[in-house]
Design a protein that fits this description.
The chain is mostly beta strands. It has one domain. The strands form three sheets. The chain has a six-stranded mixed β-sheet, with no helix packed on it. About 0% of the residues lie in helices and about 30% in strands. It contains no helices and ten strands. The structure holds iron/sulfur cluster. The site of iron/sulfur cluster has 14 residues, from strand 6.
Length: about 100
């Protein structure tokens, strides 16, 4: 499974740069470069300091359903990369994030 790191610390699921969700989806069905993708699972935190409260044992292994079919790591709409970095420091919405690991075919 893919090891996910995420810098979108304004997401309610972000826990010390890991994602508290066991599965996410990445959008970008017509993406040709990283900035045309985004994390569709991004959920704005209510405050900047309370994200992922209550989540314990957050692990990097994450299933990633991905619509970015032009990415070399996309296999049948699932991500097959060993590790993925989602970028989005200071993000207010999903569109402010991106899959920095995207690589065009
Ligand atoms: S690396 Fe490619 S296939 Fe994996 S989540 Fe990012 S855009 Fe999707």
């Amino acid at each position: 499974m893919t090891e996910l790191k995420c810098s979108a610390t304004t997401c309610s699921n972000n826990c010390s740069h890991l994602c508290a969700l066991t599965a996410i989806h990445v959008d970008g069905s017509t993406a040709c470069k990283p900035c045309e993708t985004c994390c569709g699972s991004f959920t704005p935190a209510m405050t900047s300091t309370t994200n992922a409260v209550g989540h314990t044992d957050v692990r990097p292994e994450t299933r990633i359903k991905c619509h970015a079919r032009e990415c070399v790591y996309n296999k049948d709409m699932m991500c097959a990369a060993d590790s993925v970095q989602i970028s989005g420091a200071g993000a207010d919405r999903s569109g402010d994030t991106e899959c920095a690991t995207f690589r065009s075919r």
